[in-house]
Amino acid sequence: MEITVNGQKRTVLPGSTVTDLVAEITDRPIAQDGRATDGQRLGVAVACNAEVVPRSQWWRTELTAGDEIEIVTAVQGG
Prior knowledge:
Elements: E1 2-5, E2 8-11, H1 18-26, E3 44-48, E4 51-53, E5 68-73
Parallel strand pairs: 1-5
Antiparallel strand pairs: 1-2, 3-4, 3-5
């Protein structure tokens, strides 16, 4: 099925969750609590259809065709 991620069309499998998408994009396995299993910080936030998805809800937030997802990466600087 097709969704939009940061303005780009992307195909995901039906039944995919926000956790699945973040894991695919970051190339890191993600635990049910939304943290990387390697213990390192992910530094990302996710919004689905302009609604922020709390990290604790990533695993139960199923993506649907036409969803517009924004994944924001924290960048340190000054």
